[in-house]
C-alpha cells in the first residue's frame, strides 16, 4: 500500500513516540534517534502500524 505524505508523517510521529517510550524496533539498526529508526522502518515497510482509510 502506498502511503500519502500525511500518513507517513502521522505514522512516523506515532512510531517514534512508541520507540522512545521503550517499544522494540522491528529492524536492526545502529541509530540512536527514535525518529531515524521509525523512518527506516517505514522505508523498509516493517512498521507495525497501518492507516485506516474511510470507505467511499
TrEMBL record:
GO cellular component, one term: DNA-directed RNA polymerase complex
GO biological processes: DNA-templated transcription
Domain of life: Archaea
PROSITE patterns: RNA_POL_K_14KD
Span of the signal peptide: none
InterPro entries: DNA-dir_RNA_polK_14-18kDa_CS, Pol_omega/Rpo6/RPB6, RPB6/omega-like_sf
SUPFAM superfamilies: RPB6/omega subunit-like
Swiss-Prot/TrEMBL keywords: DNA-directed RNA polymerase, Transcription
GO molecular function, one term: DNA-directed RNA polymerase activity
Record's protein name: RNA polymerase Rpb6
Organism name: Methanocaldococcus vulcanius (strain ATCC 700851 / DSM 12094 / M7) (Methanococcus vulcanius)
Record lineage: Archaea, Methanobacteriati, Methanobacteriota, Methanomada group, Methanococci
Amino acid at each position: 500500500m502506498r502511503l500519502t505524505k500525511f500518513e507517513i508523517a502521522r505514522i512516523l510521529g506515532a512510531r517514534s513516540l512508541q520507540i522512545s517510550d521503550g517499544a522494540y524496533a522491528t529492524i536492526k539498526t545502529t541509530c540512536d534517534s527514535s525518529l531515524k529508526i521509525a523512518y527506516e522502518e517505514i522505508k523498509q515497510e516493517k512498521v507495525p502500524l497501518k492507516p485506516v482509510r474511510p470507505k467511499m
